[in-house]
Amino acid sequence: MHDQFDVTLEDVDLLGEVELTTNLIIAASESDGHLSADEIDQILGVDPGPPQPRREA
Length: 57
Description:
Blueprint: H1 12-30, H2 37-44
């Protein structure tokens, strides 16, 4: 007899987000202080691109 509740669900985008979040949690737990924006970008695989000029507030 087929169990209608025995289904496998896989959301590729969600799995990717969970992996990124897990990587951040691990890096934060291994760090003695706060992670810098550059460190977070590196963990997330963000390409910083060319430097942007600073805007004054």
